[in-house]
Amino acid sequence: MGARKIKSENMVDLLVLDEEWVGLIIEAKNMGMQLEEVRSFLEKIVKDDGNKG
């Protein structure tokens, strides 16, 4: 999965988003999820989001 650009009105939104995602990834790791499981989950969300609209 390549890097994706996120449109935002200001950098604060991006920083908050990054902190939230980092926290969620750490929580998943602490729950015992493997990196590939997290990656698959995120890819599914991106794919599903792309199919809306």
UniProtKB/TrEMBL annotation:
Question: SUPFAM superfamilies recorded for this chain?
Answer: SinR repressor dimerisation domain-like
Matching InterPro entries = SinR/SinI_dimer_dom, SinR/SinI_dimer_dom_sf
All copies of domain Sin, residue ranges:
8-46
Q: Name one Pfam family in it.
A: SinI
* Taxonomy, superkingdom: Bacteria
Under which name does UniProt file this protein?
Answer: Sin domain-containing protein
Please report the organism this UniProt entry assigns to the protein.
Neobacillus kokaensis
